Amino acid sequence: MTDPLVETRGLTKHFPVESGLLNRLLSRETKHVRAVDGVDMAIQRGETVGLVGESGCGKSTFGETILGLVEPTAGEVWYGGERIDDVSPSRLRELRKEIQVIFQDPGASLNPRRRVRDIVRRPLDVHGIGDSRSARNARVEQLIERVGLSTDQLDRFPHEFSGGQQQRVAIARALAVEPDFIVADEPTSALDVSVQAQILNLLDDLQDDFDLTFLFITHDLSVVRYFCDRVAVMYLGEIMERGTTAEIFEKYQHPYTDALLEAIPSTELAARGNRAVLEGDVPSPIDPPSGCKFRTRCPIADEDCAEPIDDRVFSESQLVHCRKRSPEEHGSDATPISGE
Fold this sequence. Notes:
Elements: E1 6-16, H1 21-25, E2 32-43, E3 48-52, H2 59-67, E4 74-79, E5 82-83, H3 89-95, E6 99-102, H4 106-109, H5 116-127, H6 133-146, H7 163-175, E7 181-185, H8 193-210, E8 213-218, H9 221-227, E9 230-235, E10 238-244, H10 245-250, H11 255-262, H12 267-270, E11 312-313, E12 319-320, H13 327-330
Parallel strand pairs: 3-8, 3-9, 6-7, 7-8
Antiparallel strand pairs: 1-2, 1-4, 4-5, 9-10, 10-12, 11-12
Helix pairs in contact: 5-6, 5-7, 6-7, 7-8
């Protein structure tokens, strides 16, 4: 396997919690929200890695930390063999041409006072791409047609477009600087189902045309199954399981993965028998459980699960963060049923 285009090593982001006056006077220890807690991930050039989990599990914070929108508490971010979490502002600005983002809410990500032509051309202006303004406008027209819109729509404002059309504009803007890597943060969750399919098909086509690499953040596993090459399942800032899309859907091992898959309305998955149902509330990220963070909601957890645990290796690509699952006991081809 070649060196990854994007890699994180022990990436951590903890947000301090503002304490009250009494706590400050008593000099009590500042508490932290452990949004991302030591994540290792490698993304190969040209592939799409899906990052899935419940709302609030740290998915978006992980993506924002890779992008440099928030500073990591610890760990490293590498891009193309270069460590980028501690680069200078000028170097970070240069990296913006290679690393782009598509946000969840296209309406909120587009300047309502700018026409679409100006919105899509803005990255070209900022980075000085193109010999002239006319050349940049020509590039904008090419991009807007490539994402399925008409050049006649370039002088409209964002509010004159539907949600799906706004997301197409946002995609065109992200492509303007010809990036290699895109963080797509829930890019279809705010759209109607039929429009979601159109945007996913568009992203799939663009990946081939522009040789793009994606980190695709979502809570919708049905989207992941269609669009992603590999999947990482996150819970309370940690990766519970990772593997190829086929491994996650057909040879999954972690009870949390099992519970997430149960939420997909699929007769194929439902036919497998007694499936996991998530019970109880997600623990506070300020004071998460020791050991496996999922143990307080896990149907097969025991007292040993409170102890620290390393990932178990099921295959070259599948790692499982669970003390109760091991290749020796279940076999790499096993598909467990929760509560066995």
